[in-house]
Design goal:
Nucleotidyltransferase, domain 5; two-stranded antiparallel ribbon; five-stranded mixed β-sheet; about 25% strand
């Protein structure tokens, strides 16, 4: 495993948990290789904590990456992530050329076009049920964590 990409996607505004609001999907994927390692759905105010949680889980379950790709968004200025990456000697790279972002944007397009459009959001009363539905969808399309993804390879 060479590196990891950390990115997030904002959902369209939708009624979830009986309230209309935006949810965010935070993901860690391999680069290259485009494997989904970890994810978490959350509200915007929860994002730094969720990002830290999935980063720590990925470190616990997978090999430590040689580098982290992320965009220059303020969410990645999370001190816990920077400190932990520094402790482990993982350089953080901004993906200015768009190569790494291509991988996550392709995945997010699949999520928006197929997952968010195909499942009845009325059944999502908790984040646990949302994560369960999302895991079922990932398994259905063959994208579950740590297995090869159906994403095109960027050359």
């Amino acid at each position: 495993m060479n590196g990891w990409i950390i990115d997030f996607m904002a959902s369209p505004s939708m009624r979830v948990f009986d309230v209309k609001r935006r949810l965010f999907l935070v993901v860690i994927m391999t680069y290259p290789g485009q494997q989904l390692l970890e994810f978490r759905w959350c509200y915007l105010r929860q994002m730094p904590k969720r990002l830290t949680t999935i980063f720590e889980r990925a470190i616990d379950f997978f090999d430590t990456p040689h580098f982290l790709y992320c965009d220059s968004g303020i969410i990645y200025d999370t001190p816990r992530i920077i400190n932990r990456a520094n402790e482990l000697g993982i350089p953080i790279k901004e993906s200015l050329n768009g190569v790494s972002i291509y991988t996550t944007e392709w995945f997010f397009m699949l999520v928006k076009q197929f997952f968010l459009q195909s499942f009845d959001r009325q059944g999502w009363q908790t984040f646990e049920s949302l994560h369960s539905h999302f895991n079922e969808w990932l398994t259905l399309v063959g994208l579950e964590g740590g297995k090869s993804c159906l994403l095109p390879t960027m050359v």
